[in-house]
Amino acid sequence: MKTAWIVFWKEVRENLRDRRTVLNTLLTGPLLAPLMFVLIVHAAVTRELDKAEKPLEVPVIGAEHAPNLIAALERGGVKIEEAPADPERAVREQDADLVLRIPEGFGKAWSAGEPAQVEIVYDRSQRDAQGSVSRLSAVLDRYAQQNAALRLVARGISPSVVQPVVVAERDQSTPQSRSGMLFGMLPYFFILGVFIGGMALAIDTTAGERERQSLEPLFANPVRRGALLAGKLGATGAFAFASLFLSIVAFSVAGRFLPTERLDMSLEIGARFGAITLFTMLPLVLLLAALQTLAAAFARSYREAQTYLSLLMFVPVVPTLLLTLFPMKTQAWMYAVPLMGQQVIITRLLRGEIVPWEGIWLCFGCTTVAALLACLVTAAVYRSERLAISA
Amino acid sequence: MIEACGLNKAFGDVRAVDGVSFVARDGEITGLLGPNGAGKTTTLRMLYTLMRPDDGQVRVDGIDAAVDPMAVRRRLGVLPDARGLYKRLSARENVAYFARLQGLDPATRDARIAALSAALEMDDILDRRTEGFSQGQRVKTAIARALVHDPRNVILDEPTNGLDVMATRAMRLFMRRLRDEGRCVLFSSHIMQEVGALCDRIVVIARGRVVADASPDALREQTGCDSLEDAFVRVIGSEEGLAA
Prior knowledge:
The complex is a heterodimer.
Chain A: H1 2-16, H2 19-53, E1 56-61, H3 67-75, E2 78-82, H4 87-92, E3 98-101, H5 106-111, E4 119-122, H6 127-154, H7 175-182, H8 186-211, H9 215-219, H10 225-255, H11 271-297, H12 302-312, H13 317-325, H14 332-336, H15 340-350, H16 357-383, H17 385-388
Parallel strand pairs in A: 1-2, 1-3
Antiparallel strand pairs in A: 3-4
Helix pairs in contact in A: 1-10, 2-8, 2-10, 8-10, 8-11, 8-12, 10-11, 11-12, 11-15, 11-16
Chain B: E1 2-11, E2 14-24, E3 29-33, H1 40-47, E4 55-60, E5 63-64, H2 69-75, E6 76-79, H3 91-101, H4 106-119, H5 135-147, E7 153-157, H6 165-180, E8 184-189, H7 192-198, E9 201-206, E10 209-214, H8 216-223, H9 228-236
Parallel strand pairs in B: 3-8, 3-9, 6-7, 7-8
Antiparallel strand pairs in B: 1-2, 1-4, 4-5, 9-10
């Protein structure tokens, strides 16, 4: 135990003197992600909102065929623009979000009481155009319904006859749960923070120590290798945990600068959120530290270790990706799977849902067991003769 | 006293060490001499318990290394072939780290560091970070670190490797001083002159076996050669990998 402390403090002190490590784990790692996140979300949201508030600009071909429709569109907040010569091409090349085409026969069909067709030319793979398309469709629909009603009234029929069913939507989402959709990536950022925070030390204390040939003299001391490993894992975990803590703080500060109210959302990263997140992540910190150290132990050099650890970094993406691709109802077993349990808990906390204490304890317990197993495997590798030999 | 009895170590099909036995006594400098790849480093690694022999026994001051490796390591000061330092720590901090791991109390630790620093003439570099140290300064720090717990037995793997003439002379003086303090000094080398100038006893290893174990004079007598170098070539049976 005493040995582990000695090793722990030496590793912490040595790595605090390394400007690059400190910068990466305690500054860039935890702060860069929230900053980028805020900037991107802010830009996207502002843009979306600005668009919704601005008049919709629609290039129209054949406006002369339907003056009434055009007038109605203008009343509905649409600004009619000159149409490009080749609308399909203009849309494909993103010169225009959408183009409205009114065919020559529009007036004739209208007068004959037949369905008169208009065309909206757009590109569905252009996410940016979606908002404009639905706004235009809504205005057109409204115009069609008004006229349908007028025609029915003119024939002495109540318009409600053609509306046998009325759908009323009752949205059960809360401002917090709506923000959960936007911040679905947050758990991954936290896990990534842990990963980046521990990376430099995991490499430095194993592959790095071997590369600079200091592992063999270290092993000549009358100390158990398990104790040496405990100190090294502790130091790696401490840096990872510091990184995670800063990351949570940074996100809670950054969250205040997001225009969430304008989106009718709310993001609460408070003390309760922070405490539960830190608690459930605690064994995960140890698990990742052990896995990183294990991977680094197989590497012969610093560079090789970096390669292994970069590959390992993709592992935490898996549960996030799975839950994004196959959204499923939270089930009890999910809490028991390391990484996924943390993901589920943090997501629920963000959505303002209640997380059962059994779930939190199950997550903590199972991740702890996994972490201890990883530590045992790492310890076994550490005891091997091969590890110490530098050359 | 360090005793090796019938040590064997194989890596796959290669028998790196094949039945090595010898004794390094207190108050003597014992040289482990042999061409490159003869099995010197592997033998030493078994002595300081980094490797476990496939067969055979290591005893340090009568303690069996297989039974109580911790006690053995406490009695050994080791300068391995790999002698990397922590470059973001000062020389003093490097040495103090090992002193703590050896379990020295703060007062003893400071006293030992001061004594070793004086003996190795490294007061001027003691509080500098080891990044950018010369080879000689690095070896001094590594030796101070290896001897900080005042061990009775000292194992040095090619201690003069990479040192210039002055540093080599200083190293030899230091080794004699260790012997005169009554310690058991065991070092390996592939350099004839060094072994001849220093050793009270020479153990010659070739292809994983001990081919001679005698004092320098006795070795000359045994082989009927006047020069130690000729004697060395005679016992090894070839001239491969020798440096005069």
